[in-house]
Amino acid sequence: xxxxxxxxxxxxxxxxxxxxxxxxxxxxxxxxxxxxxxxxxxxxxxxxxxxxxxxxxxxxxxxxxxxxxxxxxxxxxxxxxxxxxxxxxxxxxxxxxxxxxxxxxxxxxxxxxxxxxxxxxxxxxxxxxxxxxxxxxxxxxxxxxxxxxxxxxxxxxxxxxxxxxxxxxxxxxxxxxxxxxxxxxxxxxxxxxxxxxxxxxxxxxxxxxxxxxxxxxxxxxxxxxxxxxxxxxxxxx
Length: 237
What we know:
Oligomer: single chain
Helix content: 25-40%
Shape: globular
Order of helices and strands: EEEEHHHEHEEHEEH
Structural class: alpha+beta
């Protein structure tokens, strides 16, 4: 039995609330159960310096966890002078995920930065961030289209992410912290709306997992991401 009493293939309650940040071109407050992440998309009328003159734009992301997003206060990374390796890994993952579904030349020479700030953490912050970041990005691009800043639609597809793991011998979907901290295997799957695989991160925490178990986790992730994409579609309809 899962600590949350959910079925193995059940997501936590998920919500995607749009237009929550007054000044951002796009924003979404995403909740995966007790994991809450604020995603804001900001448009700049110039690309990164290394991309100037190439006729295409860029999408990137930054990720941070507020000090009391966790049970005990975490020191702000700004006071430490630099982000941790975990933070860098997660924000690069979010940026990669978003770029796979954006036609960068269609953006023109502009940059969109999606900031993902974890308000409350209960496992799966990176997967919630990616799922909410897509909504914020969608609304930023809609803001641009409404002002005739782009001709073709730069957004090619949806992208969503979900965690899976093997908990007490059973493959399960969307781990909360209680499960993630005890799972024999945990993995994160980033998938497009069309079913394409963007990234798979999988780790055996105790004993190695089999190819069959990996396929079971992938099947759970596909079903979970399909539901998340449906929620994205409903949110932006």
